[in-house]
Specification:
4 strands, single chain, alpha+beta, 155 residues, 4-stranded antiparallel β-sheet
Length: 155
């Protein structure tokens, strides 16, 4: 088991483009479907795996380009430490004063370490100075993943 870190920051309006953040349906539209439905399916099927936007489901980071992996760690503690460093780096830009509280950030890092130790994924998001957004995620690569069809980008 190991962990991959992902970071995305950008305009909130881009983050809100949910169609590009969800994987396409496993089955294409049936024969005879409206042409615009077929075209939209093709666009999403082509765009989702190549987009740098954070997926709605954390595990789907694994289908994104390998170049988006910001770090890989064998130990959950190391991955959580990376999260903590990123939180500290971006905290001064958090839109909410409550989100900047050091004790709250420490609790988030500790919770992340525990979840990662158990083989779960972690995803945090924060509004930055308007209108930006920060998405941080650590995905656990394990043969026991709930989404076994998702292949680890680095083996």
């Amino acid at each position: 088991m190991h962990h991959h870190g992902y970071l995305w920051t950008g305009p909130k309006v881009r983050f809100d483009q949910e169609a590009l953040r969800r994987p396409p349906h496993p089955e294409p539209p049936p024969a005879g479907s409206r042409p615009e439905l077929v075209q939209r399916y093709r666009e999403v099927a082509a765009g989702f795996p190549t987009s740098d936007l954070p997926p709605l489901e954390t595990a789907y980071w694994l289908v994104k380009p390998r170049s988006l992996v910001r770090g890989t760690w064998e130990e959950a503690k190391e991955a959580a430490s990376w999260l903590g460093e990123r939180l500290a780096e971006y905290a001064p830009r958090f839109a909410s004063e409550r989100d900047r509280e050091t004790s709250r950030l420490a609790r988030l890092v500790n919770a992340a370490a525990e979840r990662l130790r158990r083989g779960a994924d972690v995803s945090y998001g924060f509004y930055l100075e308007r209108p930006s957004y920060l998405s941080l995620a650590v995905v656990t690569c394990s043969p026991l993943r709930a989404q076994g069809e998702l292949v680890c980008p680095v083996t």
